[in-house]
Amino acid sequence: MLYHSTRSREQLCGSKEAILKGLCADGGLYVSDDMLKTSLDMKALMEKSYEEIVLEVFRVLLDDYTEEELQYCVQRAYRGKFETEDLTPVTPIGDSWLLELYHGPTSAFKDMALCMLPQLMSKALKDEEVMILTATSGDTGKAALSGFQDAEKIGITVFYPYQKVSDIQYLQMATAEGGNVHVAAVRGNFDDCQTGVKKIFAAKTGEFKNKYQVALSSANSINVGRLVPQIIYYIEAYKQLVRRGVISFGEKIDFVVPTGNFGDILAGFYAKLLGLPVGRLVVASNENKVLTDFFRTGVYDKNREFVKTISPSMDILVSSNLERMLFYACGCDCDYVAGLMKDLNEKGRFEVSPDVLKYLQDVFDCGYATNEESKQAIAGAYREDHRLIDPHTACGYKVAKERGAAAPAVILSTASPFKFAKDAYESIFGVLEGNAPDGFAYMDALSERTGEKIPEALASLKTKEIRHKDVVEIAEMAAFAESCISG
Questions:
Q1: Half-sphere exposure in the Cβ direction for 478 (13 Å, CA)
Q2: 90-106+226-418: CATH topology
Q3: CB 262 within 8 A of CB 325
Q4: Residue (of 347, 263, 370, 367) closest to 300 by Cα position
């Protein structure tokens, strides 16, 4: 299977090279035309374990890895790192289902891919060294730092928006250990961090390679090695419902996905292309509803007020992975995609053709939740079903309830509520009394009132040393990255 840029077919490569580079030289994202003519025997996958499904998918989409390399990656990625025997359990909530994706080492869905990506990179490396540059709106950062900690011949630098992540997300990154990890807050929002990282790739890749013999790569969802592992839990969720007798194989189910950067739901689209019986993929946004507006109108416009919400990992106005979806929606026309991205870069907006919009609307539904609606959803889930959900999952829960669709709906639950304990607690029980209670006080109170256990990885943050205190301006990101490489 060959990969190329969403914006041109001039340079073809295998999956190993695509994973190591992360981003194409022209700024596009790696895609494969073969996705449209590739399928898996989904019925046979219903009889396999999570790890066996991973191997079946990887053998097709990452086919320049040897069987021995894939077996190594799977064993290193998942074994002994998750709190539950089922890595991604599916549990009932009202008339829908929750796909719990937060039982990994950092209590967020990013673990499902970022436990795997370092293994894939290590097997793709030859003699070169790599620096991972990653922008995060909250969860990717810690999951990447954890995954790449002390990896041989790989360093990692994470940028996050200053004072725009939760207390717990901040502590997860600021206390990150490992001799090869670097973290800096950026005075700006996530889009500034993401744009800054892309500019470093465009301007500095050759310079850093020549000067330091270090290649740049990414751990964001733009990386093929992040995207492909996310396909698995869609298949796994369907399998669990089939095994329980909730559905018969072949029945379609809907997936409701809280999403900002579009990578998580794009993996669902890839699962659908591979043959999974998916009904509708439902984009659930927060008040930064640029995606909801796009799927309703065909106009993508980032020229709007940025809203700081209680679901910070979705506070995004430039959804990078949407570019991949546009590539498939327009019939794999690289020039068309390049034109749209040129408009987005120069004008801050683009509009797709009626045919492209129809294709998208045939696949996707959409909706959004305001901050207040998210709080009401958290309270409602606990009151009605005694389920504790985080603010991101709450957006999906609200959108799923208002749809009232006939098909079974699986809501992707993307983070532990204890990562956002203050908002979860106050939504259900009101303001916590005391002298300026911090995130840990809210975690303890939430656990005590609900009887839910705090994940050990979060509870242990209390005693960890703050190791990363750098705060940089947007214009200083490249210099910081270079200092991490040279130092």
A1: 13
A2: Rossmann fold (3.40.50)
A3: yes
A4: 347
Nearest to 410 by CA among 248, 234, 194: 234
Query: Would the pLDDT of 272 be above 80?
Result: yes
Q: What are phi and psi of 74, to 5 degrees?
A: -65, -45
Nearest to 387 by CA among 395, 373, 401, 397: 397
Answer whether 22's CB lies under 8 Å from 120's CB: no
68-72, 201-205, 477-481, range with the lowest pLDDT: 201-205
Contacts of 460 (CB under 8 A, 6+ apart): none
pLDDT in tens, 408-427: 899 999 999 999 999 999 99
Q: 64: number of CA atoms within 13 Å, CB side?
A: 16
- Residue 36 tokens read as 């449209």
Distance CA 162, CA 473 (A): 10
Instruction: Tell me which amino acid residue 222 is.
Output: I
DSSP string covering 321-333, please? Answer: THHHHHHHHTTS-
152 band by pLDDT with thresholds 50, 70 and 90: confident
Strands (E), 145-236: 154-161, 181-186, 214-217
Q: What are phi and psi of 5, to 5 degrees?
A: -70, 150
